Amino acid sequence: MTETMRQDRPHGHLHELLLGELFELLGAENQLLSGLQRMADAAHRDALQAVLRLHLRETEMHIERLKLVFQELGISPRRKKSKAMEGLLREAEDLIDELADTPAVRDAALIAMAQKVEHYEIAAYGCVLTYAELMELPEVSALLAQTLDEEKQTDELLTEIALEVVEP
Ligand SMILES: [Fe+2]
Ligand SMILES: [Fe+2]
To answer: Which Pfam families does the record match to this protein (predicted)?
Structure first.
């Protein structure tokens, strides 16, 4: 984009940043669908399995909401593969294999991995929400804030389960 084009459009730099992050979030959420399924299947405790399965349904909603965001912005959705999410999910996969014989320890490790994933999403949605607010896009902001809330709630639920699972 040329400097003249940027000047023609208010918030030109932010617009680019916002789109880049949104493409990556759409990639990350899609990658997470199979990751959460795998983690839920590997969870031993019912409570942990339930939270992971619930969040799998919510993740499907997050993808739908991102599509609505793109619709609001008049942009066709594009997925960019998230290397961060790929790394986190690969790490989770390794732990699932390594801790196959110790279900309680594996649950604790799964909680830690799931929280790392949520913290990544919280950071990413926090950024795009700030951009959208600065760009004065209330509809987009509302959609992103809704998803951000669900990511935070999941993180809190995982902490609650961790306190039950992880014994000193
Ligand atoms: Fe999400
Ligand atoms: Fe999430």
So the answer is: DUF892
